[in-house]
Amino acid sequence: MEEMLNVTQSLVEYTTLICITGVSISLIILLYRAIKGPSNPDRAVALDIIGINLMALAGLIAILLVTTKFNDVILLIGILLFIGTVALAKFLEKGVIIERDMD
Amino acid sequence: MTRTNDIILRTTTTLIAFILLGFSAYLFFAGHNAPGGGFIGGLMTSAAIVLMYMAYGIKSMEKILPINFRHVIPVGLLIAALTGVGGLLFDQPFLTQTFAYFQLPILGKTELATALLFDLGVYLAVVGVTMTIILTIANDRGEEEGV
Question: Within 10 Å of residue B60's Cβ, how many Cβ atoms?
C-alpha cells in the first residue's frame, strides 16, 4: 500500500514537471510571436495566450507545491486577462477604450 | 466612423460582471483566513465596474451607477480612521482590534472581528482611487473633439 502511494506520488510529480516544461516551451515560442509579430493584433493574441499559459503554470505549480492557495490567483489571472484583452481590442478597433456615448 | 454592434461583449459583460462582483465579495470576506482582503477585493470590484464602462459607455453608466467615486475615498478613509478611534473609547491604544463570537441565523457560530470594518475602509478607498484614476484619464479629451 505504501509502495503504491509512493509510486503515485512520483508519477504525479514527474507528470507535472513534464507539463511545466511543455508550457514553458510554448511560452518561449509565444514570446517570439509577441516580439516579432508583424501587426499589433498578432501581439495582442500572443499576449492573450501568454496569460492563459500563465494560468496553466500557476495551476501546475500549485500541484507541485501541494497547496490550494493558488486557486484564487488562477481565477484572478483569467479575469484580468479578459478585461485586458477587451480593452486592447477596443483600442485597436475604435481608438478609445471608454467611450463617452455609445448609442 | 461606422457604428459597430458589440452585442457579444454586452451580453457577456452582464454575466461576467455579476461573477466578478461575487468573486470580489468572496475575496473581501476570505481575507481573514485565506489570501484576499480589502485591497484585492476593491481592485476586483473596480475591474467589474471598468468592464461595464467599456461595454456600455460613460453616459449610460452614469445613469446606472450614479456615484461620484471621488466621494468614496474620504468615506473609506473615515471608516478606517473611526475603527482606530474606536479602540480609544475602551482605554486601549489607537487601532486596537478585537473579535467576538456570535450566533448568526444561517452561518451559525461566526467570528466577527473589527478588522473587517478596517478592511471595509480599505476596500472603499481602493475602489474610489482606482475608478477616479481610470475615469479622469478616460474623460480628459473628447469633450471638444467629440470622438
Answer: 15
